[in-house]
Amino acid sequence: MKNLISVVGPTGIGKTRLAIDLAKRFNTEIISCDSRQFFREMKIGTASPSADELAEAPHHFIGNLSVKEYYSIGQYEEDALKKINKLFEKYDTVILVGGSMMYEKAVIEGLNDLPEANVENQQKLQEILDTEGIEKLQEILKELDPEYYAVVDFHNHRRLLRAIDIIWQTNKKYSELIAISQDSRDFNVTRIGIEAPREELYDKINRRVDIMMEKGLLEEAKGLEKFKDLTALNTVGYAELFKYFEGIWSLDFAVEEIKKNSRRYAKRQLTWYRKADDIHYVKVGYSQEDFGNLIEYINKNILQ
């Protein structure tokens, strides 16, 4: 049986480093399931692995798309599984890494065959969005499906429209529909998480935003301003700077908002992962001994 080691955890906690350490230890390659790092124009704001990191272990699905390309989670599921199965011809173990919860789920469990968008529902929801704002959509989803509301990026109106539409069509909670595992994968999955005290994590996130600014996030965002209406750019680190370019916010305020929204996203990721009972945790900034214990755990898990 082949083995997929999935490294998960909130933004900024150090998943890239752990994935590389594991890839080197198992002499294998890495599949990214970080949906923001797919886009090559967004290197700094998504904290994509550096050239040095990419040279340490082969990575796939990093900077493989342009922000101008539409790419669905269903397409990713298909592409990622194809690549994983190809890698399994060469390796017994492959590493999956990323904090995009639904993208990891798509790989390890599969997406459900959800109905296509209903035009009438979409029009109705679009009217609500136009007249009463995104807050009204958030309110509707929270009432219909509090579980999904707790983990969804509720600033992304497309996600809200999609979830409410599906709930209206099926009379079932969206969170339940996406939780039903599809056909089982013919490989073992070992999920590894990284944990840190909340304060330490938030401190790391704040520092990382400062580093992104030093590396040129402002210039990167400026170059992408013409694409600001595209879904890929409707994300933390860019949306805030676009408001600065428009003269709505000061630069200092925009940077503080990036930090705040990044911490908020991390909190949602933690909520999602806390519900799972199959994640084995290693401490942030793990020692050699910790890493040794982790390898022991993985090997034991693989042999079971």
From TrEMBL:
InterPro entries to which the protein is assigned, alphabetical: Dimethylallyltransferase (IPR039657), IPT (IPR018022), P-loop_NTPase (IPR027417)
Catalytic reaction list: adenosine(37) in tRNA + dimethylallyl diphosphate = N(6)-dimethylallyladenosine(37) in tRNA + diphosphate
Domain of life: Bacteria
UniProt entry keywords in alphabetical sequence: ATP-binding, Magnesium, Nucleotide-binding, Transferase, tRNA processing
Amino-acid positions noted as binding substrate in the UniProt annotation, renumbered to this chain: T11, G12, I13, G14, K15, T16
Similarity comment: Belongs to the IPP transferase family.
Protein name (record): tRNA dimethylallyltransferase
